[in-house]
Specification:
With 98 residues, the protein is an all-alpha fold. It is 55% helix and 0% strand. It contains four helices and no strands. The protein has helices at 22-27, 38-41, 45-57, 60-90. Helix 3 (45-57) packs antiparallel against helix 4. It starts with 21 loop residues before the first helix and ends in an 8-residue tail after the last helix.
């Protein structure tokens, strides 16, 4: 496994790949609320903002389920995009769907 090295200004940084935790979070979405590395888990800042908005607008159980659902969608979409990219490199003449 390869992770990017996290450099910080004295505070501890963490490199967390949400793909490694998504299976567990699907089974126990409430774990997201108390996850120590939750902020490092999100793939982009937009997901952290989505979590803040969901947590403020929904009951705790629903907010966790919705956020885990977003992470599942992100991982699925990323896997599909990666597969399409590999396929198009193998078949350079084939057009990609828009």
């Amino acid at each position: 496994m390869r992770l990017t090295r996290v450099r910080t200004d004295g505070a501890r940084g963490h490199a967390i790949d949400y793909h490694h935790l998504i299976g567990t979070l699907r089974r126990k979405p409430q774990a997201l609320r108390y996850l120590v590395y939750r902020e490092a888990l999100f793939p982009r800042a937009a997901y952290a903002r989505a979590w803040t908005a969901l947590d403020a607008a929904l009951p705790p159980r629903d907010a966790c389920r919705a956020m885990v659902g977003l992470l599942v969608l992100a991982s699925t979409r990323e896997a599909v995009e990666n597969r399409i990219g590999r396929s198009s490199r193998r078949h350079p003449g084939r057009r990609q769907a828009a």
